Amino acid sequence: MKAETKPTVLIVDDRADSIAILSSCLEDEYQLLTAEQGHTALELAAQYLPDLILLDVMMSDLDGYAVCEQLKAEPATAEIPVVFVTALLNVADEERAFALGAVDYVTKPISRTILRARVRSHISQNKMHHELLAFAKVLEQKELDAEKAKRLLNAVLDAIPIRVFWKDPDSRYIGCNRHFANDNGMISSEDIIGRTDFDLMPERAFALQAFAHTVISTGQSLLNQEGAITTHDGKLTHISLNHVPLLESDGSVIGIVGAYEDITQRKHTFDALQDAKIKLETKLEEIVSLQDKLLEAALRDPLTGLYNRRYLAETLDIMLAQATRNNMPLSAVMIDIDHFKAVNDSYGHPAGDEALKCLALFLSEQARSSDVVCRLGGEEFLILMMGASAENAQLKIDRHRDDFSNTIIRHQNGELKITFSAGISVYPLHTENSKKLLEYADLALYAAKHNGRNRVTIFNK
User: Fold this and answer.
1) Which of 30-34, 178-182, 237-241, 275-279 has the highest mean pLDDT?
2) What distance lies between CA 235 and its chain's CA centroid?
3) What are the contacts of 396-404 at 24+ separation with CB within 8 A?
4) 161-268 belongs to CATH 2.60.40.2470
5) CATH code, 8-110
6) pLDDT mean across residues, the chain
7) pTM for the structure as a whole
8) Exposed/middle/buried for 304, CB within 10 Å: 0-12, 13-18, 19+?
9) Rounded distance between C-alpha atoms, residue 150 and residue 158, angstroms
10) Which residues of the chain does CATH 3.30.450.20 include?
11) CA angle 59, 61, 64 (to 5 degrees)
12) Stretch 416-439: mean pLDDT, rounded?
């Protein structure tokens, strides 16, 4: 298996000792390019398109501001994230750097841990940005393909002599071909949409409604239903009418597809109708596939609406870098519903879902705007509290725990009350590693449950 190529970082500084220090911090994780002059940096950036550029401000030929400005002016290098690494501490210098398009501003002397965290964070964000752009391009092409398939399907349906229509579960027309519209005195198929059989053919409306109801309720087709209709020009026509259920990918009925033909002038259109049906099913499958991809890319838990584990993975390192930059603690609070299995076993999974949604709503309403509330899966939740010390986090979560224990959760079979346990770990008090931060919060949660549940415990090594 081919090893994944390391990201490339271009280090630009006119001092060899500074380049050596920065290189020693990053050489184990990244491929490094170095330049001691601004013009050299521009040439290397254009040639290699690195994943990130560490740029000094004060240099002998072009200063860092001029280099950044020229990088952002060129389409090929404009999207490369630039991090200024400088001894300039003036706020105006920092503001100028961000105004020119830099993503970060790191001051010397360098903290190895902070530099690595920021570089890792910005490269991760840049990679995710390019992946999203690629996904958007694929999605755009899929939408174009779906629209092309729709036009082709409409052309096929309009070309065949059979009258074709489809209805929603309320037996309201949502589409048809041109021949069906013409039979009902209308020029365009769009004129049919939203109407019912009582609008189009009131003399046969009750019979047609009965056919549709049978197909939708049973999921079974009604084929070769013979009868007679009077077209808008007064012509009595004997027809053979078919109703077929329109199915979702999970097999549920979402409507019906209907078709009829003049029995006295039957033509060989069976194959064309089958082709149209296959194209319609293919189009529906493409739509379902696109929906699945969008759901997979979503960052929220579908049951509770909270952020999910994927969002946490993309956000935690960024919050840790922010906490470091602002010299603030970051508390991770792991929360687990006590005896949740007993809730499901005693009241049923719908009641368990209501309990999860109730706790999610409660935590969201109590959270500050700077807090991030996630559902990690099952009955496990996580809150990231920027600026909260271990004691402050414990005091707040313990108050929430007490308030929630008195909350009545209503479900279809009655009411119930539940409690939760919580474990807290704090950055940088307990660890500076994001993975360890979550592990320690989980260990603290385990201790809380082991010591009787319905309590909040701070991690203790």
Assistant:
1) 30-34
2) 54
3) 397/333, 397/335, 397/422, 397/424, 397/456, 398/455, 398/456, 400/362, 400/363, 400/366, 401/454, 401/455, 401/456, 403/362, 404/359, 404/362
4) no
5) 3.40.50.2300
6) 87
7) 0.40
8) buried
9) 12
10) 161-268
11) 45
12) 95
* Residue in the structure block whose two tokens are 């999910």: 308
d(CA 196, CA 178): 17
To the nearest 10°, the Cα dihedral for 68, 73, 75, 81?
20
Domain with CATH 3.30.70.270 in the chain: 309-458
Residue of 291, 345, 339, 363 lying closest to 449 (CA atoms): 339
Condensed to tens digits (0 to 9), the pLDDT of residues 319-338 reads: 999 999 999 999 999 999 99
**CA-to-CA separations, 107 to 55, 57, 84, 86, 94, in angstroms, rounded:** 11, 11, 8, 5, 10
Is the separation of the CB atoms in 244 and 273 below 8 Å?
no
Nearest-CA neighbor of 309 among 377, 379, 378, 362? Answer: 377
Q: How far is CA 460 from the centre of its chain?
A: 36
């033909």: which residue's tokens? Answer: 261
Short-list 382, 301, 378, CA closest to 343: 378
Residues of the chain with CATH 3.40.50.2300: 8-110
Cα separation, 282 vs 284, whole angstroms: 5
Q: Could you give phi then psi for residue 89, rounded to 5 degrees? A: -105, 0
Q: Would you state the pLDDT for residue 385?
A: 97
Can you tell me the distance from the alpha carbon of 408 to that of 415, in angstroms, rounded to the nearest whole number?
6
Residue 288 sits at the vertex; the CA angle it makes with 282 and 293, to the nearest 5 degrees, is 125
- What separation, in Å, do the N-terminal and C-terminal C-alpha atoms of the chain show? 39
* Paired strand residues for 384: 332, 372
CATH number corresponding to 309-458: 3.30.70.270
